[in-house]
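Data deposition worksheet. Section B asks for the primary sequence of the deposited chain exactly as it was used as input, without tags or linkers unless they were present during the calculation. Section C holds the resulting structure in token form. Section D is free text for depositor observations; keep each observation to a single sentence. Incomplete worksheets are returned to the depositor.
Section A, Depositor: J.P.
Section B:
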Amino acid sequence: MFIFEDLNIYKKKYFRSYDYLNKAWDVIETKLIYFIGMLNNINVSIIIDSSGIHFTVTSNFKTYTSTEKIFNANHCLSLCDYFYIEIELNIITSYKEFSCEIEKNTFYHGNRKNDEGVVEFHANFCFNLSDYLKFKEIVFTNIVKEIQASINRNVFHLDYESNIKSKIDEEFECLMTSLLFKKDLTKSFKYLEKNKIISEERKDILLKIKELIDE
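Section C:
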């Protein structure tokens, strides 16, 4: 596989985790924003798998919605019947100050060959609706890294835990995702390094890849 050998891999949405997550998020985003605006304290559960998207919102032990939507992503992960993403969010909207605590963000799997694994993201947020994009950026820049690891394992058959090509690919996806929100390379690097989403030692190679695909 690639670092510089096949730069098209970095361009093809079919192999990029942001595209997969963004398509899923589009399905539930309108309802999510509605409940963030309506309720002061909500628990959100989002399960994305080959059968669809399962979206549940509860508050004070009351279920406000529990829906299942068909999800046709036209993505390489659509071929992984047993892979899924689990997102659990506790959101408090009655505070003016933004805060975030990520409890879990990981991709893991069993030892069986047909175990395609799961990406889990669990986090607590305090914010009001005006900070929605800041919240979304944190969710996306963290999760895409783990989803990209799953692509490298399940599609390209790389050992994502030790393979440097996989590590670079994962961090590159985080950089490109952050740029969609910040629109500024310096600000994106500062945010990603500060939050330990990417490593400073790989900054130069990430810049080189971006430069090459932008040509």
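Section D:
Helices lie at 8-11, 17-38, 132-154, 164-182, 185-194, 203-213.
The chain has a mean pLDDT of 93.
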